[in-house]
Design goal:
The protein is built from 13 helices and 26 strands. With 557 residues, the chain is of the alpha+beta class.
């Protein structure tokens, strides 16, 4: 009887779990059940929203397979940010996180206040509000790094939120000499709540347009992944192969097939009220250093005999690498070495390098095309800022190409003929040896619901898996996003917080696959130079050295 009772209970628990999962799945995809977009240039008559709070119904997604839907749910759950307790409206700045009243403290080392190479340094951070009162909840966005300017050394710290207003930052000590701690409040938790709301309620705050033309007639309309439903019909440009959604309002006098280009058209300027804007003030509470309550640096002694080396690390247990004498040293994976110009040509000899992504990937293409004397660029009669671009070193049989990813992409006018999705490009590659595929996709997805980014990566991953199955020798390298300089206008659409969330999703999506990551996030954070959307030349050179070290690894590495 006891065994029968346990079996029934297990069946009941399983049934309950399945019921809850199905309910969650249905609730998360109600917008799909309401309206499923048709394919390719068809006209859609959207229903008109009659309720001001009816938000998700206008941002629709195609149905996912059960496996992809479960993965989406699990990723969204694993990247969920701590909630901030509701403050009385309007928001009072005095109740929010203030870096000027916050401090960090270096905790004593385990060896009588001494630290050696290979040890870990722990820092406690206490966040307080503008009245100096310690915060009681978490959710602030903090960055931490350790530097020695004279040695040109640096490493990123791992920040842990204790959800009570205090945080830990842990650093691996990797060089002898001084190590200066830097802790930065990027955004208070209250600002994160605003950013989350913006992506939920106003994912169309960035404007894109397309020109439609036929004969003497021309007209321009708004386009986006998500468009507010009006009486005006939509042109549906959802990609037939990948299912990537894209819509434009239909011109009044032209067909959907008359669309000839895509371009950036500006952004909605007043999306925050005056109280919310106070949460995004440079030199006040946005990317501001937090002071130390005592010493801000330690002296690191030589490594003790028998102490293990700091080696392979993951994003959850330690840094991916560090700088020493201005050179990036990866921890785990391939050994990163420096390449002279002749060595770059020798490494790439006989290689075809396809680069896909945004302007941060175009930086890599520009580095190679301007550094290698034998690499000459073909005039494909495309704007350099948008591409596609192609360079060839005939003597060394080197081909390097760049193509931007498909919309959403905030670029100057691009002809629709060059708007290609990365997944489709990978499917169309000629399967031959010596192909290198380099991908980055992150910077243009800031204003949108995370589902859009997840689905884009799912389609790219499927294409990568097929490419590796059919051509196992292909090398696939993925560049992560990086921190950038922030102003109010940049932040509300492309905050580092959006980039951090995308970084987490990207790593989860490609974990376990035979692809290589170049950790642009840590390579930028660990460097002493200011953050920039387009990292400065010393960081780019280190990234290229890392890429080339994957293409031409040292024997045994």
């Amino acid at each position: 009887m006891k065994a029968t009772f346990c079996t029934r209970r297990e069946i009941f628990v399983l049934f309950l779990f399945l019921t809850v999962f199905v309910l969650i799945f249905v609730l998360r995809h109600m917008d799909i059940l309401e309206f499923q977009p048709k394919f390719n240039s068809t006209i859609i008559m959207p229903r008109v929203s009659t309720h001001p709070n009816e938000i998700r119904s206008f941002c629709t997604f195609q149905p996912l397979s059960p496996e992809d839907a479960l993965e989406e749910y699990l990723i969204l759950d694993s990247t969920a940010w701590p909630e901030t307790p509701l403050l009385s409206a309007p928001i009072s700045l005095e109740q929010t996180s203030d870096p000027a009243h916050s401090t960090f403290t270096i905790l004593p080392g385990r060896k009588g206040g001494q630290w050696h190479v290979g040890d870990q340094l722990e820092v406690m951070i206490q966040i307080s509000d503008f009245q100096g009162r310690p915060k009681k909840s978490g959710g602030d966005f903090l960055l931490a790094s350790l530097h020695n300017r004279k040695l040109e050394a640096g490493v990123a710290g791992q920040v842990v939120d204790h959800l009570n207003g205090s945080y830990s930052a842990v650093f691996s000590l990797l060089w002898e000499g001084d190590a200066q701690v830097e802790v930065t409040l990027v955004h208070p938790s209250e600002a994160i709540s605003v950013l989350k709301r913006l992506n939920r309620e106003q994912p169309n705050r960035i404007y894109y347009k397309s020109l439609f033309s036929s004969g003497s007639l021309s007209e321009t309309t708004l386009c986006n992944v998500c468009l507010w439903p009006t009486q005006q019909p939509l042109c549906n440009y959802t990609d037939l192969r990948t299912g990537e959604p894209w819509f434009c309002y239909k011109p009044k006098n032209l067909s959907c097939d008359a669309r000839i280009n895509h371009y950036e058209a500006g952004y909605k300027e007043k999306v925050l009220n005056s109280n919310e804007e106070k949460l995004f003030q440079s030199d006040v509470n946005m990317k501001v250093y937090i002071r130390a309550s005592g010493p801000a640096s330690v002296t690191v002694l030589p490594q003790k005999e028998g102490q293990p080396q700091v080696k392979s690390s993951t994003v959850t247990s330690g840094p991916s690498g560090y700088y020493y004498q201005g050179v990036w040293r990866a921890l785990g994976g391939t050994t990163v070495r420096e390449f002279s110009t002749p060595a770059i040509s020798q490494c790439l000899k006989g290689k075809v390098v396809h680069m896909y992504g945004d302007s941060t990937m175009r930086q890599w293409y520009a580095f190679l095309s301007t550094t290698l004397p034998g690499l000459e660029e073909f005039d494909l009669h495309n704007p350099r800022i948008t591409g596609p671009l192609m360079s060839l070193d005939y003597a060394n049989d080197i081909l390097v190409t760049f193509r931007s990813h498909g919309p959403p992409i905030y670029f100057p006018p691009m002809e629709t003929r060059v708007l290609h999705y990365i997944a489709n490009e990978l499917e169309g590659l000629i399967r031959e040896p010596n192909i290198v595929v380099v991908i980055t996709i992150w910077a243009h997805f800031g204003p949108f619901p995370m589902e859009i980014y997840i689905r884009r990566l799912q389609s790219i991953r499927r294409a990568v898996v097929r490419l590796l199955d059919t051509t196992p020798g292909t090398l696939v390298v993925i560049r992560t996003g990086n921190p950038k300089a922030l102003t109010l206008d940049v932040t509300i659409n492309y905050s580092d917080w959006f980039s951090l969330q995308h970084d987490k999703v990207l790593r989860a999506m490609f974990k376990g696959l035979n692809v290589h990551l170049i950790d642009a996030w840590e390579m930028t954070l660990a460097h002493h130079l200011p953050h920039d959307l387009h990292p400065p030349p010393p960081i780019i050179r280190n990234m290229i050295n890392h890429l080339l070290s994957y293409i031409c690894p040292q024997n045994g590495s």
